[in-house]
Design goal:
Elements (H helix, E strand, L loop, with lengths): L4 H15 L8 H23 L5 H34 L3
Helix pairs in contact: 2-3
C-alpha cells in the first residue's frame, strides 16, 4: 500500500473540523462562572430581603435558582467521580 504524504495531510485537514470543539457547548470555566454568579445573586437577594429591601417573591425565586444550581453542580460532580472510578476499575 502506497501512502502519499500530501494525500494524508489533505485528508487530515479535511477531518480536522470534525474533531474541533463545538462552540455552542459551554466550557467548564463558563459554567463555574455562571454557578458563582447565581450563588452571589441569591446571597445579595437574601441580604436585601433581611433588611426589607426585597420582596419575598424575589427571595423565593433567588433561593430556587440557587438550589437548582447547587443540585446541578452536585449531579455533575457525582457523574465525574463515577466516571473516574470506572476508569480506575479498567484492567491495564
Amino acid at each position: 500500500m502506497d501512502i502519499n504524504a500530501a494525500l494524508a495531510a489533505q485528508r487530515y485537514t479535511a477531518t480536522r473540523p470534525a474533531t474541533a470543539p463545538d462552540p455552542t457547548i459551554e466550557s467548564a470555566g463558563q459554567a463555574a462562572s455562571d454557578f458563582l454568579s447565581t450563588l452571589q445573586k441569591g446571597e445579595e437577594t437574601a441580604k436585601a430581603a433581611m433588611t426589607g429591601q426585597a420582596d419575598p417573591q424575589a427571595l423565593v425565586q433567588a433561593l430556587s435558582e440557587t438550589k437548582l444550581a447547587v443540585e446541578t453542580a452536585v449531579t455533575v460532580r457525582d457523574k465525574v467521580v463515577e466516571a473516574y472510578q470506572e476508569i480506575l476499575r479498567m484492567p491495564v
